Amino acid sequence: MDFRERTAPAEPRLEHAVTDGIATVVISNPAKRNAMTAGMWQALPRLLEELAADPGVRGLVLTGAGETFCAGADIGSLRDPAGRPQALAVEAEEALAAFPRPTLAAVRGYCVGGGSQLAAACDLRFAEEGASFGITPAKLGIVYPSSSTRRLVALVGPATAKYLLFSGELIGTERALRTGLVDEVLPAGGLEDRVLAFARVLASRSQLTQAAAKEFADGREGRDAHWSRQSDGSGDTAEGVAAFLERRAPRFTWTTGSAGAAPTSG
Fold first, then answer.
1. What global pTM score does this model have?
2. Which residues pair with 23 in a beta bridge?
3. Taking the CA atoms of the chain, what radius of gyration do you get in angstroms?
4. Would you say the C-alpha torsion 47, 192, 111, 218 has a positive or negative sign?
5. Which residues are CB-neighbours of 118 under 8 A, at least 6 positions away?
6. Measured between alpha carbons, how far is 218 from 196 in angstroms, rounded to an integer?
7. Spatial separation of the C-alpha atoms in residues 157 and 151, rounded to whole Å
8. How does pLDDT run across 46-81, given as a tens digit for each residue?
9. One-character DSSP codes across 31-80
10. Buried/exposed 108-146: b ≥16 CB within 10 Å, e otherwise
């Protein structure tokens, strides 16, 4: 899916397509810089569940339509006195973090508030030069969710997390790269090709290795025996070694839907 050149629909929505094993989810609300409405927050976990159930999906790219990633939550929805919009945002964030295959945020333009919340929930973040990042609850008198705060601290460390949360100020790609908020910064015009090429690399690798690594990196312990059993029964190790010796691309067969496999936790 060409997420830069697409003509975005007028109504707020999430679009998606699957090509070569890569699912691309596009946040589209052009009238408000791709701000997430309550309906969009609600739709994301259902869409992710659908994509996770598709054995042909080996990775996921999250991005925004046009020239921006996501300017956060639609401010109008924050007037709900019950605080439901924030709960919906956390549910969407956790669903993204728990997606069982590698996830990559492709960031162009503004990645602010709820946009940064979603980007942080992805496994990796690639950004185009000139992108801006910010977490802005202090500008609105909103308490940022504890789960989101912990995820941010794990990603960038307590000092940078406090800087972002206390000030609500925006930072550019240079600082975002230096602090670990993003993994790669690409020149203008180079983001999409790099993201899709790297996503294809991820899709070619062992899902067994990726699923176990995602669990361990996210702090889930006590599952070494489970993953040892998965490895012993998968055939992926034998295939990987054979492919290396035969100088060919491996054909890994284990998937996150294999018997006995458990979903990762965010």
1. 0.90
2. 18, 60
3. 19
4. positive
5. 27, 36, 62, 70, 92, 93, 96, 105
6. 24
7. 10
8. 999 999 999 999 999 999 999 999 999 887 766 555
9. GGTTPBPHHHHHHHHHHHHHHHT-TT--EEEEEESTT-SB--B-GGGGG-
10. bbbbbbbbbbbbbbbbbbbbbeebbbbbbbeeeeeebbe
